[in-house]
Write a structure and sequence with these properties.
Number of strands: 10
Distance between the termini: 35 Å
Low-confidence stretches: 1-5
Bound molecules: flavin-adenine dinucleotide
CATH superfamily of the largest domain: Butyryl-CoA Dehydrogenase, subunit A, domain 3
Mean pLDDT: 96
Radius of gyration: 24 Å
CATH topology of the largest domain: Butyryl-CoA Dehydrogenase, subunit A, domain 3
Helix content: 40-55%
Structural class: alpha+beta
CATH class of the largest domain: Mainly Alpha
Length: about 575
């Protein structure tokens, strides 16, 4: 079955034959997008990276100055509509900017909190007057923003917020507290979530100078030490009635819709810094001699280097694919249309499974890359004098905020279970029509991904038949289903991109092919194991034995020698001194 763009929806990759869905790749970026990426690179290399040490000493004035400089270059207004002096750029250009900004972890968190979770609630949910008042200044950097959802007692369970808002005449009175608020040390505008009359979850715009609003001292953190993180308190904080954002009782739409956008952005930032880590690890392993050789001659060090490159390639393939889907729908809804904001948020809702996959996989890939970097540096990796120590600490936050990775795994699984149950994702449990080995350079890997899909279909369908959507209550089982789906999405994204690069005779097509092959070679085994373990969570006795025997029908992939492929990848990376597939 040939699939067209119209049939692409959240999770549809589980149904469609490999390569039958349109997939955007970074090789197709427009010249305009490349120019924006280049501008961001010049800003980061000229202004941000040289001040790396000062930023990490939590120089808030410096962070403010850098954000304002980013504003002068237009980098704060990428997603602000033109009517409010914004650039209203497509999300693909934004992804390039996020990758570049990601290279300084602390500053990228400040940038992301301001331009993303801080500014976007006003872009999507603000009244005309709110947009006119705040957006031009948020876009220029004259005003800086923060987003305050989390409370001391309400983190993952954000709807359990205790902060309350009561209307007294023309004034909202806020009481309560917030915790862990990024940019709080310098923000002027805070999007704050509170319950009207203690019940109706809603959003408000609070300004720094508002009476009854206080900002605590900086938290002392494990990493991203150059980003400001503080608690807030509201003690009869009085704000004008027109600072309600969106509708009373609809705050969850703002809170979670904006967080979903933040998730794919976080993934892009992770990959930006991963490229930086690869670069300094390649340099060190070339210079460090042991046994009279550069350590990059040793097979196990070459494995670490290749794995870094493979993870970057996979993440990049998946990131551009996901943002391609989101961009297509979001950008198609012009801001001139009266219901543009709703249409755009609906697109985000549709692809929340893919956004969560990006968040989980990219943040965990960066964690592995940071760990491998420490290992490649040996004892020096354990020293604060050498670069891996910083990324080892800085990367850790990515698994915690924008929804912890546990919560995101539950979102992925919950979406799959819901879509299977309502018939949107009809999974097949039979073992007939198994994919044949096709022709072409990546045929074996493509067949592996098809088999992985069928395995996931079988295991998830078999469990849901027994438990229904209650499967989500067995969190270990749900996470196994989420991980299967995630592995499939990563494998397919890498494979389709490599296939396109081969067809186009791209300079790095062989490298891409090797990355896709090694990734598939490892991931397929993970899916097989996850499928068995998922079945064991739900089935017992003969039913389990039969199901495990059925699964063997899909077990037709014969592994390839990974070492040879990795060695070729490592050679290219070492020669180039970095991740070689440049987009501009
Ligand atoms: C540096 C930093 C910056 C931040 N910036 C902001 C910001 O700008 N604005 C903002 O509003 N918030 C911000 N946060 C807060 C962040 O989003 C929360 O820390 C996060 O959502 C987790 O909440 P929590 O810390 O209360 O952990 P908890 O929710 O208490 O979670 C603790 C553990 O329990 C797990 N858990 C919780 N519930 C479940 C469940 N149902 N099933 C399975 N496991 C579960 C979690 O995954 C986690 O492993 C920031 C946090 C940090 C550390």
């Amino acid at each position: 079955m040939e699939t067209t763009n119209e049939t692409i929806f959240g999770g549809s990759f589980l149904l469609a034959p490999i390569g039958s869905q349109a997939q955007f790749t970074p090789e197709e970026l427009s010249e305009d997008a490349q120019a924006i990426g280049q501008a961001a690179r010049e800003f980061v290399e000229g202004e941000v990276i040289p001040k790396d040490a000062a930023i990490d000493k939590l120089d808030l004035e410096l962070s403010k100055e850098l954000l304002r400089k980013a504003g002068e270059l237009g980098l704060l207004s990428l997603e602000i509509p033109e009517a409010y002096d914004g650039m209203d750029l497509d999300k693909l250009s934004g992804l390039l900017v996020l990758e570049e900004l990601g290279r300084q972890a602390s500053f990228s968190v400040s940038y992301g909190a301001h331009t993303g979770i801080g500014t976007l609630p006003i872009v999507y949910f603000g009244t005309e007057a709110q947009k006119a008042k705040y957006l031009p200044k948020l876009g220029s950097g004259e005003l800086l923003a923060a987003y305050a959802l989390t409370e001391p007692g309400a983190g993952s369970d954000a709807m359990n917020a205790k902060t309350v808002a009561t209307l007294e005449g023309d004034t909202w009175v806020l009481n309560g507290s917030k915790m862990w608020i990024t940019n709080a040390g310098f923000a002027d505008v805070f999007v704050v979530f509170a319950k009207v009359d203690g019940r109706k979850f809603s959003a408000f715009i609070v300004e720094k100078e508002d009476a009854g609003f206080t900002i605590a001292a900086e938290e002392h953190k494990l990493g991203i030490k150059g980003s400001s993180t503080r608690a807030l308190s509201f003690d009869n904080c009085r704000i004008p009635k027109d600072r309600l954002l969106g509708e009373i009782g609809k705050g969850h739409r703002i809170a979670f819709g904006i967080l979903a956008i933040g998730r794919f952005k976080l993934g892009a930032g992770c990959n930006g810094i991963a490229k930086e880590v690869l670069k300094y690890t390649l340099k060190y392993t070339a210079e460090r001699l042991q046994f009279n050789k550069s350590i990059n001659n040793f097979g196990l060090i070459r494995k670490y280097l290749a794995d870094m490159g493979i993870r970057i390639f996979v993440a990049e393939s998946m990131n551009f694919r996901t943002i391609g889907y989101i961009n297509e729908g979001m950008h198609a809804a012009s801001w001139d249309q009266p219901d543009a904001a709703k249409k755009k948020m609906d697109i985000m809702d549709e692809f929340q499974m893919e956004a969560s996959i990006m968040k989980v996989w990219d943040s965990e890939a960066l964690g592995l890359i940071a760990d491998d970097a420490v290992q490649c540096f040996g004892g020096y990796g354990f020293s604060a004098e050498y670069p891996p120590e910083k990324i080892y600490r800085d990367n850790r936050i990515n698994r915690l905020f924008e929804g912890t990775n546990e919560i995101n795994r539950l979102i992925i699984a919950g979406q799959v279970f819901k879509k299977v149950s309502n018939g949107t994702l009809p999974l097949r449990k039979d073992t007939a029509d198994l994919p044949e080995l096709g022709s072409g350079p990546l045929a074996k890997a493509a067949r592996a991904v098809e088999l992985a899909k069928r395995q996931a279909h079988y295991a998830i369908a078999a469990c849901l038949e027994v438990t229904g959507q209650k499967l989500i209550e067995n969190q270990e089982a749900a996470a196994r289903a989420a991980d299967m789906v995630t592995e499939i999405y990563t494998m397919e994204s890498a494979l389709v991109r490599a296939t396109k690069m081969l067809a186009a005779g791209h300079r790095w097509a062989d490298l891409a092919k090797a990355c896709a092959e090694v990734h598939t070679n490892e991931s397929i085994g993970k899916v097989q194991n996850l499928a068995r373990l998922l079945l064991a969570e739900v089935l017992e006795g003969d039913a389990l034995a039969t199901a495990v025997a059925d699964l063997k029908a899909f077990d037709l992939y014969v592994p390839v020698a990974g070492a040879k492929l990795r060695d070729a990848i490592a050679t290219e990376l070492i020669e180039k001194g970095g991740y070689p597939i440049e987009h501009f």
